[in-house]
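ok new one. same drill as before - structure tokens go in, u give me an amino acid for every spot. 157 of them this time. try not to just spam alanines like last time pls lmao
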């Protein structure tokens, strides 16, 4: 019985250390989770988007600059009409830091109806999340899931 007690005393600091790491790691993950799960989807490599699938989808092209703390986020007014499908990011000048980036957003029509997609280009590095510019698009999806799209509002500051 004494050997068991001595062995338990020897491994107790190791068990305590492991538990401490798990608790701190879990707390850190909980605190960082909103930053890990972005409200803006990650870009897909060009090869991952099947052109046959995307040809019947709403495509909205926006520009951004690499290396700046701004990104686009979108809001769909009627998620029953459209859903996000993919984002393809193309660096227009890969040799230039902070160069122009073309972002192709793809949305899948789900059912007939009308929806707007509001894009906001915002500063994600600061707590006040300053919105630099906005773009809004009106999408009409017909019964056969064909659609018409037009830009209805733009605000550049």
């Amino acid at each position: 019985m004494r050997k068991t007690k001595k062995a338990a005393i020897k491994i107790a600091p190791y068990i305590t250390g492991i538990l401490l790491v798990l608790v701190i790691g879990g707390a850190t993950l909980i605190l960082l989770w909103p930053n890990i799960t972005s409200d803006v989807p990650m870009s897909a490599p060009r090869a991952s988007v099947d052109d046959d699938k995307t040809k019947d989808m709403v495509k909205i092209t926006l520009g951004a600059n690499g290396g700046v703390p701004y990104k686009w986020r979108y809001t769909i007014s009627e998620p029953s009409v459209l859903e996000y499908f993919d984002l393809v990011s193309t660096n227009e000048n890969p040799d230039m830091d902070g160069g122009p980036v073309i972002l192709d957003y793809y949305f899948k029509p789900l059912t007939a109806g009308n929806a707007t997609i509001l894009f906001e280009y915002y500063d994600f590095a600061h707590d006040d999340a300053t919105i630099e510019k906005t773009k809004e698009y009106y999408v009409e999806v017909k019964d056969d899931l064909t659609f018409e799209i037009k830009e209805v509002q733009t605000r550049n500051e």
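DSSP finds two helices and seven strands in the chain. and btw The two ends are 76 Å apart (CA to CA).
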